[in-house]
Every structure is written in C-alpha cells, then in structure tokens.
Amino acid sequence: MVKVLVAGDRFILPEILLEALARHVPDAETTVIKGDWPLTPFVRIGEVYEAEGDEDALIWALDGCEIAFVHASPFTEKVIAAAVPTLKLITVGRGGPVNINVAAATAHGVRVSNAPGRNATSTAEHSVAMILAAVRQLVDRHNELVAGQWRGDYYAYENVAPEVRGSTIGLIGYGAVGSRVARILDAMGAHVLAYDPYVVAADMPHAERLDDLDELLRRSSILTLHPRLNDETRGMIGAEQLALLPAGAIVVNCARPPILDYDALADALDSGRLSAAAVDVLPSEPLPADHRLLRTPRLIVTPHLAGASRESAQLAAELGAADIARWLAGEPLAHALN
User: Could you give phi then psi for residue 30, rounded to 5 degrees?
Assistant: First the structure.
C-alpha cells in the first residue's frame, strides 16, 4: 500500500484532495496536514516562493511517504533531501509550482507533476471582468454614486465609454488563460491581436497572430497580459512599451507582477497617457497601505484572486490525483515537470 502526504489549505481543502485521491487511488494510506493560506499570506521559504508552512514540520509529516499531494507546502532542497529515498513523487495542485525546487527534486531522483490550467477559466473570466470594469470605470462610478454624486454628464458624447465590440485588443500570451480570454473577446466582437512566439497561427482561431510585439502595442486600445513568468517575460512591459500604446489605452494584468513595471504604469495613469488600468497581481502582496498604486487614478485593483473559484480547487485535485494513479500504474505522467 502506498503512503501519501495530503497537504491542503483553506483554498484547496484536504478533503477535496482526499476525495479525488479516493477516486483514483482508493487503497492509499494518507497523512494529512492543513495550512492556513489564504488567511496567512504566501511568503518566501528558503529558495522557493509563494509558499506557506514550516520546513521541519513538513519533513516530519513526510515520514514514510512515497508521494506528496500538495498545494503550497515548501519543497525546498532541505525538505527534499530529508525525504528521500522514500519520497518518489511530488504532485502539486498549481500551474506555476514556484513552491517546489524542481531542480533539487530532479537531482534527488524525485518526479514532480503539476496541474496546468487548473484556474484558467476562473482567471479568464476575471480578466474579462477587469477589462469591462476598466473600460466602463465601474468602481469609480459606484464610489461616486454611494458618495451622493449623480454624474449625468457621463452620458455626454465626449464622456461616454467605448464598446469592446469593434475595439482592437492586444493579448500577450496565448496559453490556457490567454486563449480563453481571446475566445470571449472574439465572441463580443473585438478584434484580438495576439503575441506568443510559441503558438502558431493555426492554433489561434480567435486572434490575429503578430510576430512583432511593438506592432501589437501600437495597434491596441486595450492591452491584456497573460504570459507565463520567465526570463523572457520578466520586465516585458515597461515605460518604453507603454509609450507605444495609443493615447487613452487601457492596460490589464492578471498574470504575474514582474511582467509589468508598476511605477511606469502609475506614471502613465497620472499623466493621463493611459485612460485606465486594472490589475489583479501587485508588486507587493499584500500591498502596503501607503503604496502609490492605491492613490493612482483610474486604476482598479483586486487582491490576486483571479484564479479563485471552487471549480479551480476541484480541478487541481482531480488533475493531481489522476497523475498519481498514472505514476503508480507505471504510465507516463500527464503533467510532468522533470
């Protein structure tokens, strides 16, 4: 009988992981631990990011476990080295498993699998909601109204918002999230331009593929960011790139903070060069109370919750449990990272 560490939290509940594991590996023996995220923020632990928990407590919980079925536990070099040779597989219910030192796992002969696309639908829906909220400036209109201001002048021709239908929307990153956003915007009648060097035009049925990022920026009245964070995309959109957008453009980031220069974004909003922006990911999380972004006009912020849905948690558990069953059956992992 295989022994599995099930490590959930307040989002991906241990119960959800256990239910999925019972469907795919009904005879597994389990050790269960539960973290407090998101009530306790993610932190850097050792060399890994967006993690929670204690390394020594995790090492203790891993005793005798051949498989770890986890969400945000910190699998550092220290933890992995202590858990081998018993530990053979780490299955993490995230698309971007930054809490796992994959290189260390590989060096110690431990396989790692993840759950790509687990929150793609939720993030895509939130991204489109942010686009619409920024275009219509719904937050400012709400705040004005509850403060007792009735601004009938917003119906004056020079003040009305544009429609998404007919707008040219630039989309960077045509992966699990970006492709869904493109499909929704295409259905709304927008003309979607897409930049993703790793996706061919035939796989972009809902967008016009461009090879030139600068051309996309020059043509886009709305820019929405969806690339995976890596060395190529870190710092991808800064002051120089924002300056290429048409005057009055809108920028939305529901991907990763380091892709966008937030000071440059705030400068462009303060100057009026951009008409609006909306971001779900922030340069510091939680954002300090005195941060300039909280004073920047026409900027909508949400606290990194685009991927938060019950369906996301359930899908993460299902993808992970299915991969555990494959590994136990001697089959190739569907979502291997090493």
Answer: -130, 145
The CATH code that applies to domain 3-118+309-328 is: 3.40.50.720
Q: Is position 215 annotated as part of the catalytic site? A: no
298 sits in the region (left: phi over 0; alpha: psi -120 to 50; else beta) called left
Q: Which of 29, 47, 240, 285 is catalytic?
A: 285
The CATH homologous superfamily to which domain 120-301 belongs is NAD(P)-binding Rossmann-like Domain (3.40.50.720)
Catalytic residue check, 52: no
Three-state secondary structure call for residue 145:
helix
pLDDT tens across 151-191, in order?
999 999 999 999 999 999 999 999 999 999 999 999 999 99
Compute how many other C-beta atoms are within 10 angstroms of the C-beta atom of residue 201.
Answer: 12
299-301 β-sheet, strand order: 208-209, 191-195, 168-172, 222-225, 249-253, 274-279, 299-301
Q: Which residue in the list 219, 256, 318, 335 is annotated as catalytic?
A: 256
Cα(35)–Cα(113) distance, integer angstroms:
20
Q: How far apart are CA 200 and CA 198, in angstroms?
A: 7
> Each residue of 204-226: pLDDT tens digit?
999 999 999 999 999 999 999 99
- Helices 138-146 and 120-136: crossing angle, nearest 10°? 60
Residue 17 near residue 6, CB atoms below 8 Å: yes
Domain 3-118+309-328 and domain 120-301 have a common topology: yes
Q: How far apart are CA 75 and CA 230, in angstroms?
A: 20
Instruction: Record the tokens describing residue 286, joined without a space.
Output: 């939680």
Query: What is the pLDDT of the chain when averaged over all its residues?
Result: 97
Residue 304 known to be catalytic = yes
Secondary structure (3-state) at 94: coil
Alpha helices in 115-226 (DSSP H): 120-136, 138-146, 176-187, 213-219
